[in-house]
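Probable transcriptional regulatory protein AMD00_21810
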Amino acid sequence: MGRKWNNIKEKKAAKDQSTSRINAKFGREIYVAAKQGEPNPESNGALKVVLERAKTYSVPKHIIDRAIDKAKGGGDENFDELRYEGFGPNGSMVIVDALTNNVNRTAADVRATYGKNNGNMGVSGSVAYMFDPTAVFGIEGKEAEEVLEMLIEADVDVRDVFDEGEATIIYAEPSQFNAVQEALKAQGITEFTVAELTMLPQTEIQLEGEDLAKFEKLIDALEELDDVQQVYHNVEL
């Protein structure tokens, strides 16, 4: 499938954990989800999704509790959810999702980062149509065929279930995130190596040599921006 989800997550987690960026990003995202709805994940589907994702990245409990408590206390900090689309070297496409309390600052930072790293920020809609919003789960200890049967019996719709190394990967519609999770938990599967809402490219490209080096530098620079939550692309890694 090209994505190699566990490798991607491990590399990203290792890089983010070394700078504690992942904790700050999840703290912000949990706060926003809890503030926009109930601070209880059982009655707030968006918060439940974020907390499951945070679990796969080993976000400390005190970070989660602090963000939820801040939302419960009526924190007055407001964030806008923004999406930027653009292009990298040699046909690569890049989508950036951000949470920000200063739209002008974030737009300027993202645009400058594209420009300084062999990229070009496009207009809204210039890239996203080539990606599909997708819920992705990774589990271990089960074969794809067995997992698919579990989900069918639970009447949960999925796009694809396949083996990737020692893991089984599940693709589903974003609206099915909680349904997939609950169906697997009902079968005793409570640990996920991957639990993400992502943007999957409809087709992937391969980059080599200097193009690949430039692309990786662009992605690293975008992910290092404080306001950036997620970066998606169409390059096979």
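thats it. The chain has three domains: 5-72, 80-129+202-233, 131-201. The radius of gyration is 18 Å. bye
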